[in-house]
């Protein structure tokens, strides 16, 4: 199996340092604060208040004293679904399920860059490689495996540029997704296919940018069509 460090080195610019996850985050577990807002981590939305969505079927415990504290800038991981992208830097303070991993930052990197990077196609494919379990639905990403994952870190100025570029481009895609979503509800499968294509392009775009690619939209479209992992 190809070494994880070599995978990251092959996919990112030569001048980007690569550091282990444990140098950026430390695992923490602070409980006993049941009055904090209940949060959840979504593949599509990151860490958000659970009350902001009505499609979360997970039922919380009556006693929330065992739920874990999360502060702004902290990283939250659903260890069973990290390979799907259920890992995110929180912009909220609150509490999350005891089943999640919570990490306190040790770094002063750009949180938005880290957020996009750790949810990218490149990294979700790595989580799939290092998770354990006999079936996909039972995959489990252990802390000891995650802590050794190599993280590519461009200079802070590049991190900021990458984030700004991503935000501009995904805003355009999100506007198209909103239109396609309405068409899908009103019409048939062609619009559903368009919606899927836009979501794939959004994922490919983020992966492309966080790995240091700044090529034109034409190049990105080819990458999205072929898959960038």
TrEMBL record:
Keyword line: DNA-binding, Endonuclease, Hydrolase, Nuclease, Restriction system
InterPro entries reported in the protein's UniProt record: Restrct_endonuc_typeI_TRD, Restrct_endonuc_typeI_TRD_sf, Type-I_RE_S_subunit
UniProt xrefs under Pfam families: Methylase_S
Stored SUPFAM superfamilies: DNA methylase specificity domain (SSF116734)
Gene Ontology MF term list: DNA binding; endonuclease activity
Record domain Type I restriction modification DNA specificity: where: 42-164
Gene Ontology BP, a term: DNA restriction-modification system
Similarity comment text for this entry: Belongs to the type-I restriction system S methylase family.
PANTHER family with a match to the protein in the record: TYPE I RESTRICTION ENZYME ECOKI SPECIFICITY SUBUNIT (PTHR43140:SF1), TYPE-1 RESTRICTION ENZYME ECOKI SPECIFICITY PROTEIN (PTHR43140)
The protein's name: Restriction endonuclease subunit S
């Amino acid at each position: 199996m190809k070494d994880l460090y070599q995978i990251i080195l092959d996919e990112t610019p030569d001048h980007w340092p690569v550091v282990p996850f444990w140098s950026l985050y430390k695992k923490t577990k602070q409980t006993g604060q049941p009055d904090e807002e209940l949060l959840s981590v979504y593949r599509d939305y990151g860490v958000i208040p659970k009350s902001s969505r009505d499609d979360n079927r997970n039922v919380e415990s009556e006693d929330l004293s065992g739920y874990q504290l999360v502060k702004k800038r902290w990283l939250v991981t659903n260890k069973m679904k990290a390979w799907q992208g259920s890992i995110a830097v929180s912009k909220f303070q609150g509490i999350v399920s005891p089943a999640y991993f919570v990490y306190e930052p040790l770094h002063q990197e750009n949180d938005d860059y880290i957020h996009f990077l750790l949810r990218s196609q490149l990294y979700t494919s790595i989580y799939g490689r290092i998770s354990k379990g006999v079936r996909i639905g039972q995959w489990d990403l252990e802390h000891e495996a995650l802590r050794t994952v190599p993280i590519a870190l461009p200079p802070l100025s590049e991190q900021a540029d990458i984030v700004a570029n991503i935000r501009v481009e995904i805003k355009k895609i999100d506007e198209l997704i909103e239109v396609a979503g309405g068409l899908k509800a009103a019409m048939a499968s062609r619009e559903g296919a368009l919606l899927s294509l836009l979501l794939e392009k959004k994922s490919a775009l983020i992966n492309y940018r966080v790995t240091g690619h700044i090529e034109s939209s034409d190049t990105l479209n080819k990458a999205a069509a072929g898959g960038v992992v």
